[in-house]
């Protein structure tokens, strides 16, 4: 569904991604790990269409289309969801109103009529239950006054509402206590279907105790330096990122 | 992609004002300029009684001694009063007895604005007085309302038919520079009287349209709510797009007797000028509400999206004991628009209460000032005021300013003031984009969320329109 080929990107003239190639197939969970500053969040930003990242080379194909030519909202409506590392507050806009607008935009894109108010509220109830989110959250303004954990849970709730084909979770686990981490991970596991995929970006292995990835990539200095099965995450946890750095330096000198 | 975006922005910023058309209506205009002669001509055109001519002349002579105030936080190009036409009216074909007698071109104009003059076609439950340039052309539902004793007609008709009511309640001509000018040259407007104990069964509204070039609009609305009565009133306004500035200096006066309640809502959408700040209406309006009787209540709600410059302070004089004044405002300044607006609450009676909620939205190079005066006089025991002023900024070239004034002469008063300033960030917009919401819709969503408290005060039918208008007036403001 997603093919990234030799992707290079810079922010403010500084090269961040230095040639990334990656393929995600339907039903797969990919974990992207790597030390701070390796380019993980930049990759997520490119896929979601943030303008401050400039793509200098390479291609991204999503279901046969050139993803890089699509607007952020079209990418979203085509099923790409980004779980934000730092979810944004929108004061005065209720979660109900926000989600109704978003869900109906997705429906319009698919040629469906907007949901009636009662159907929409029912959908919200069902999804809240699915992701074990506090029912009060939905009546508040988008992320306003939410705790860090509430914000991350709210991202998972929105993901459940929009049923993306490709969900990119950008360090959704950072700053979470173990209960919140479990709720987030359970949400992902419940939403997993044979036809949708996840890219889980994380600094730590601990999220991967709950979400079992099919493939683990290690990103270092803007390049994917290692790709393997789920055991790679454990190895990383054990040996630390220094191990990767050393390996790379050895390769360079050899 | 950047090119596409530029194109989208230019499309929406150039195409956004939908009411900028001009109608070719046969007009009766007097020559440009202002003099005692012009004041007399206007009065003669309207066959006015002696007392009104004298009122005009006194106002004009007083106005000559006055200077335009310079204290607002506005840049106003000098106004050449000799370059303005002070009276322009569609030519009357004969005495109008039915809608069919109205110039078809005029009818088309109001149809285009969504204000059909045929009653059966109109929004259920709304009566309209349609004013074009200097005169009222049609008042709908007049007869239906008359059955309940409600008078709803043009100001000119009221002068002829109810001179006592008009004389008793008119604002003194000395109120301020533009009120004095209006008192000298006002042409027409709406008049409304709700008798004792009557709850007006429908929304009343005045729709103002400037059509002619170089014409000033100086209308006057007088709204009287007798004891125990209730009325909800709405005004809307638009003008053609032109390169010159046009002056609109109106007066709205409201009087609420004992236990009466008046809700006055404005959706102001005068031509704002183009994206470089050329043209647009100068909206310099006096709005004064007198809570005359005990337990009376006047509530102003305004959605100000249009005009090159908006300069007005709908006020309440809380004279009756236990009377209440409210002011809810959303003012938008985009491109090169400027606004210096707020309210004046004067507490005179005991246990009087006032509430002020002001939401300013600045975009482009827009400058938006809130200016408000809360005055508690010596005998106003237990006066209570709550003021909240919020400013929202889009982009980094606009400005928001707050000038609250408090004058409290009674130690039992409780006066509260809160203010906030926030910005719509690219992050917020991107967050919406990422959920499938376009940038335009995202701005609409964010701005309407911000203004919700005020929009909720509008009558239902108009709340929806106001929401759309807010969104339209800000389209293209974030690149």
Characteristics of this structure?
heterodimer; A: 254 residues; alpha/beta; Rossmann fold; 6-stranded mixed beta sheet; 4-stranded antiparallel beta sheet; 8 helices; B: 479 residues; 11-stranded mixed beta sheet; 10-stranded mixed beta sheet; 35% strand; globular; disordered N terminus
Describe it for me?
The complex is a heterodimer of chains A (254) and B (479). Chain A has a single domain (2-253), classed as P-loop containing nucleotide triphosphate hydrolases (Rossmann fold). Helix content of chain A is 37%, strand content 28%. Chain A has 8 helices and 12 strands. Chain A has helices at 40-48, 72-77, 95-109, 117-130, 148-162, 178-191, 231-239, 241-253, and strands spanning 2-11, 14-24, 29-33, 53-62, 65-66, 80-83, 90-94, 141-142, 166-170, 197-202, 215-220, 223-228. A 6-stranded mixed beta sheet of chain A has the order 6-9-10-3-11-12, sandwiched between helices. In chain A, a hairpin with a 2-residue loop joins strand 11 (215-220) and strand 12 (223-228). In chain A, helix 5 (148-162) runs parallel beside helix 6. The longest helix of chain A has 15 residues, at 95-109. Chain B has one domain (27-426). Chain B has helices at 2-14, 36-45, 50-64, 104-112, 142-146, 155-161, 163-169, 177-185, 426-434, 439-455, 460-474; strands spanning 27-29, 88-90, 126-132, 135-139, 151-154, 190-194, 203-209, 220-225, 230-238, 245-248, 251-256, 261-268, 280-291, 297-304, 309-312, 315-318, 324-333, 338-347, 353-362, 367-376, 384-394, 399-408, 414-424. With 479 residues, chain B is an alpha/beta fold. In chain B, helix 3 (50-64) runs antiparallel to helix 8 (177-185), helix 6 packs across helix 7 and helix 10 (439-455) packs across helix 11. In chain B, strands 5, 6, 8, 10, 11, 13, 15, 16, 18, 20 and 22 form an 11-stranded mixed beta sheet that branches. A 10-stranded mixed beta sheet of chain B has the order 4-3-7-9-12-14-17-19-21-23. A two-stranded antiparallel ribbon of chain B has the order 1-2. Chain B is 24% helix and 35% strand.
């Amino acid at each position: 569904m997603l093919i990234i080929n030799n992707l290079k990107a810079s922010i403010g003239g500084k090269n961040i991604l230095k040639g990334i190639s990656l393929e995600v197939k339907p039903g797969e969970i990919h974990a992207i790990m790597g030390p701070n500053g390796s380019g993980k969040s930049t990759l997520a930003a490119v896929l979601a269409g943030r303008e401050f990242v400039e793509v200098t080379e390479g291609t991204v194909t999503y279901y046969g289309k050139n993803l890089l030519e699509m607007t952020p909202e079209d990418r979203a409506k085509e099923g790409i969801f980004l779980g934000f590392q730092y979810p944004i507050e929108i004061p005065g806009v209720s979660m109900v109103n926000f989600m109704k607008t978003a869900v109906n935009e997705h429906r319009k894109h698919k040629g469906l009529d907007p949901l009636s108010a009662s159907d929409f509220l029912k959908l919200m109830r069902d999804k809240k239950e699915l992701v074990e989110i506090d029912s009060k959250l939905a009546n508040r303004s988008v992320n306003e006054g939410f705790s860090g954990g509430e914000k991350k849970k709210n991202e998972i709730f929105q993901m459940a509402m929009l049923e993306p084909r490709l969900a990119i979770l950008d360090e959704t686990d950072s700053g979470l206590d173990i209960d919140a981490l479990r709720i987030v991970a359970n949400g992902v596991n419940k939403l997993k279907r044979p036809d949708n995929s996840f890219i889980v970006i994380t600094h730590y292995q601990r999220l991967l105790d709950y979400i079992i990835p099919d493939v683990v990539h290690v990103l270092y200095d803007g390049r994917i330096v290692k790709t393997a099965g789920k055991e790679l995450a454990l190895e990383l946890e054990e040996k630390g990122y220094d191990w990767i750095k050393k390996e790379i330096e050895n390769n360079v000198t050899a | 992609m950047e090119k596409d975006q530029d194109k989208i922005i230019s499309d929406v910023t150039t195409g956004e004002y939908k009411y900028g058309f001009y109608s070719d209506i046969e007009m009766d205009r007097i020559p440009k300029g202002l003099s005692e002669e012009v004041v007399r001509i206007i009065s003669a055109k309207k066959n006015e009684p002696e007392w009104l001519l004298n009122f005009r002349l006194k106002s004009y002579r007083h106005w000559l001694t006055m200077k335009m105030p310079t204290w607002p936080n506005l840049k106003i190009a000098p106004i050449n009063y000799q370059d303005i036409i002070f009276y322009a009216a569609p030519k009357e074909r004969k005495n109008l007895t039915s809608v069919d007698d109205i110039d078809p071109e005029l009818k088309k104009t109001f149809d285009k604005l969504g204000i059909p003059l045929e009653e059966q076609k109109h929004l259920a439950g709304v009566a309209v007085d349609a004013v074009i340039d200097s005169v009222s052309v049609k008042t709908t539902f007049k007869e239906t309302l008359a059955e309940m004793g409600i008078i709803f007609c043009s100001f000119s008709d009221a002068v002829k038919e109810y001179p006592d009511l008009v004389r008793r309640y008119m604002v003194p001509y000395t109120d301020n520079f533009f009120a004095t000018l209006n008192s000298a040259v006002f042409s027409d407007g709406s008049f409304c009287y709700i008798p004792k104990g009557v709850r007006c069964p429908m929304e009343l509204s005045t729709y103002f349209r400037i059509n002619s070039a170089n014409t000033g609009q100086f209308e006057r609305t007088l709204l009287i709510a007798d004891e125990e009565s209730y009325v909800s009133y709405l005004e809307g306004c638009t003008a053609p797009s032109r390169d010159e500035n046009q002056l609109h200096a109106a007066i709205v006066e409201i009087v609420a007797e004992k236990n009466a309640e008046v809700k006055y809502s404005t959706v102001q959408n005068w031509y704002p000028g183009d994206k470089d700040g050329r043209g647009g209406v100068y909206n310099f309006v006096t709005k004064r509400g007198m809570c005359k009787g005990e337990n009376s209540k006047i509530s102003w709600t305004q959605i100000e999206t249009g005009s090159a410059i908006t300069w007005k302070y709908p006020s309440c004089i809380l004279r009756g004991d236990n009377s209440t004044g409210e002011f809810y405002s959303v003012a938008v300044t985009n491109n090169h628009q400027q606004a210096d607006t707020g309210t004046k609450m004067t507490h005179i009676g005991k246990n009087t209460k006032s509430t002020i909620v002001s939401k300013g939205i600045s975009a482009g190079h827009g400058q938006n000032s809130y200016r408000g005066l809360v005055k508690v006089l010596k005998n106003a025991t237990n006066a209570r005021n709550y003021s909240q002023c919020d400013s929202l900024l889009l982009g980094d070239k606009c400005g928001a300013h707050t000038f609250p004034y408090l004058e409290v002469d009674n130690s039992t008063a409780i006066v509260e003031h809160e203010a906030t300033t926030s910005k719509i960030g690219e992050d917020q917009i991107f967050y919406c984009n990422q959920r499938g919401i376009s940038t335009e819709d995202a701005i609409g969503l964010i701005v309407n969320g911000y203004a919700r408290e005020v929009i909720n005060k509008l009558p239902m039918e108009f709340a929806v329109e106001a929401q759309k208008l807010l969104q339209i007036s800000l389209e293209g403001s974030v690149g």
